[in-house]
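2024-03-11 09:14:02 DEBUG pipeline.ingest accepted 1 chain
2024-03-11 09:14:02 DEBUG pipeline.ingest length=257
2024-03-11 09:14:03 DEBUG pipeline.predict start
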Amino acid sequence: MTEIHQTAVVARGAELGSNVVVFPFAVIEDDVIIGDSTTIGSNALIAAGTRIGKHCKIHHGAVLGTVPQDLKFGNEKTTLEIGDNTTIREYCTLNRGTKNHLQTVVGGDCLLMAYVHVAHDCLIGNSVVLANAVNMAGHVTIADHVGIGGMTPIHQFVHIGQHCFIGGGYRVSKDVPPFILAAGEPLGYAGINSVGLRRRGFSNEVIDHLHKLYKILYRSNLNVSQALAQIKMEFQLTGEIKQVVDFIEASERGIIK
């Protein structure tokens, strides 16, 4: 049974699933959809255009689905979409999309710690962990199984590949290829995310191939084009190897050094 505290304000046009719990002084506007068994913490604001999945936990003071901080925004109808089983901690701020992409997306099984900001048109995959006060500019794309340390600013249009881990407090201004650790100022390659990959069932053979690939890319004194040519000569372009090559070839901002 859905429970709405008597001090909460829930618009008639909001759609709440079964077993939703809304805590004191929360505000839920029209054109909001909240899935089954999700909790909305006290003083949270769920603004129009927000879509929240099932079994999510929205904590005290979080602000979801508000108007983008983009001067080009023309009040077009856009959304913020959050997948199932995602936790959004205290005072996070998530804006909805603009006409560029029409939506901001946070996937399922994610954890956004306190004070995280997700700007307009960002696309966050599944099982992503953003530590306290990660601040994303617009149009950032983060793939599945990424971890980012606290106090990290991310430049607009940056892409971060799957299974990366980025250390806390470093500025992310270039694309970060898949499967790696990134640290330092300026942000650079710091090895393979071996611990994370083993935890997720990657074989030693795959991890070894990734080590060899990134040794060519980052330790051979070749430029990116030369390194890619060398990689294509030495490896079969399948599985994780192809994912890395495709990511680098598609990069518009350029990859970290």
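2024-03-11 09:14:41 DEBUG pipeline.report The chain has two domains: 3-139, 198-250.
2024-03-11 09:14:41 DEBUG pipeline.predict end
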